[in-house]
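Good morning,

Attaching, inline, the backbone tokens for the sequence recovery test we're adding to the shared suite. The designed sequence is right after.
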């Protein structure tokens, strides 16, 4: 068992150039519209602003985060994410937007977005779920890495651009029921209500857009059956260019989001729109098993909790990690590390 020391060791994409630079392009376009040159943001990153127009370019999360931090400092506009997302047209989403526009209805378009969002250059992971009891549709965004300084910007850009794209698809105004964010309210929190036109909550468990379920049935005027097939095929080809660990990362994210009651392999396979057999085969080809990933995620979270300045009770940590009792957790931790939880602290 490999002992994990940081979330970045669990996902090689932190330094792997696999992300289309759409977000960076949107930020640079916005900066230039305000008379700000983005050229200096790329110093030492191995990139330059002129490369962003290259359709073959891929950047790493590390490179993107360096450039974005410099951009936010230079722009000196706290709500830049809200502004930039509102100005992103479907062209920023590339082949994914083409496939979504050709879809029969908004529900089909969002299904494609959930399945292929990574080919559009998203720096967060997206899941779309429905709640028939509440009659709602939920678009959830999960950070790929712990990055609290950038999280507000990433959420603002992703959700405002998503609302803008939905309005382009529908040809009418779309207003969510509620927005939820996992971080504290920023000083410019009132700008969120203006941007989304709905109730906004902070310090929540997740980052989510919640809308009324009936929107999913809305037909799209741009629907084209041939376009759907072509768009999906283009998305599949772009997706195949991503490394196989991309699936590993996605499984890790889904497990980490529900550690108290972790989903099984069948549930995760269903959410990924693949069979359980395919999921098992692809994990095996990446050199891991489902059980190993669950152990790794639990071990990483256990280490984080045990290293906090104010130590929590072992029984509470065990419950948060989905163990039935503290004895089961102690045995597992000993198996992972050769140490007891108290010895690590």
């Amino acid at each position: 068992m490999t002992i994990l020391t940081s979330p970045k060791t669990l996902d090689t994409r932190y330094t792997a150039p696999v992300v289309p630079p759409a977000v960076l392009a949107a930020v640079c376009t916005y900066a230039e519209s305000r008379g700000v040159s983005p050229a200096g943001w790329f110093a030492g990153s191995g990139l330059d602003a002129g490369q962003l127009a290259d359709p073959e370019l891929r950047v790493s999360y590390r490179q993107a985060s360096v450039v974005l931090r410099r951009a936010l400092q230079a722009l000196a506009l706290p709500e830049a994410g809200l502004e930039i997302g509102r100005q992103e047209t479907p062209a920023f989403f590339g082949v994914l937007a083409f496939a979504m526009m050709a879809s029969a209805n908004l529900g089909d378009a969002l299904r494609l977005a959930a399945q292929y969002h990574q080919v559009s250059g998203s720096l967060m992971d997206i899941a779309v779920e429905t709640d028939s009891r509440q009659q709602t549709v939920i678009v959830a965004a999960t950070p790929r890495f712990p990055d609290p300084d950038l999280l507000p910007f990433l959420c603002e850009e992703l959700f405002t651009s998503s609302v803008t794209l939905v309005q382009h698809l529908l040809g009418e105004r779309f207003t969510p029921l509620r927005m939820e964010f996992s971080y504290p309210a920023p000083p410019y929190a009132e700008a969120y209500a203006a941007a989304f036109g709905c109730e906004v909550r902070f310090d929540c468990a997740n980052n989510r857009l919640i809308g009324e379920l009936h929107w999913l049935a809305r037909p799209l005027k741009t629907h084209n059956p041939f376009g759907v097939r072509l768009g999906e095929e283009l998305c599949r080809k772009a997706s195949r260019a991503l490394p196989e660990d991309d699936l590993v990362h996605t499984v890790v994210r889904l497990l980490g989001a529900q550690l108290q009651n972790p989903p099984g392999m069948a549930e995760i396979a269903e959410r990924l729109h693949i069979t359980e057999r395919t999921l098992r085969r692809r994990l095996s080809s990446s050199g891991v098993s489902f059980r190993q990933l669950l152990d790794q995620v639990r071990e990483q979270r256990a280490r984080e909790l045990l290293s906090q300045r104010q130590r929590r009770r072992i029984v509470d940590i065990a419950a948060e990690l989905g163990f039935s009792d503290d004895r089961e957790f102690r045995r597992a931790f000993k198996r992972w590390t050769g140490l007891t939880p108290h010895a690590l602290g």
